[in-house]
Amino acid sequence: MQIASGDHKKSYASIPKYIAALKESNSGAFVKLKCDGLDITNPNCNPKFERIFISFEAQYHGYIKGCRPFIRVDGCFLKGPYKGKLFSAVALDANSGIFSIAIMICEAYTYGNFKDAMEEIKATDLEAHKWLMETCGEEPSTWSRHEFDASVKVDHVTIT
Question: Residue 100 forms beta bridges with which residues?
Answer without folding.
Answer: 90
